[in-house]
Design goal:
Elements (H helix, E strand, L loop, with lengths): L8 E2 L2 E3 L13 E2 L2 E3 L16 H10 L11 H4 L4
Parallel strand pairs: 1-3, 2-4
């Protein structure tokens, strides 16, 4: 998957885990389904809109810092 910044992701389903390579999810991510996600280490969710329950689920497993953007995964999700 790699860094897909600027690419539209309508109807994307993220299953099992995100790729091991650091990713920055674009703000155009829409209708995405996060199920059975095991790792989001290094992912940058800055400006991604999501339901509160999805955010809370992702915060439970959020870890790492995106080496491209320098943003911590937990910070990009606004985790408490």
């Amino acid at each position: 998957m790699g860094n897909q910044a600027g690419c539209p992701f309508g109807g994307l389903a993220l299953l099992a885990h995100l790729p091991t390579a650091p990713v920055s999810l674009p703000p155009q991510l829409s209708n995405a389904q996060f199920s059975r996600v095991k790792s989001i280490t290094g992912a940058d969710f800055t400006d991604a809109l999501m339901r509160k329950d999805v955010q809370q689920m992702l915060c439970k497993i959020a870890d790492g810092v995106n080496p491209t953007t320098g943003v911590a995964t937990r910070d990009s999700l606004y985790c408490p």
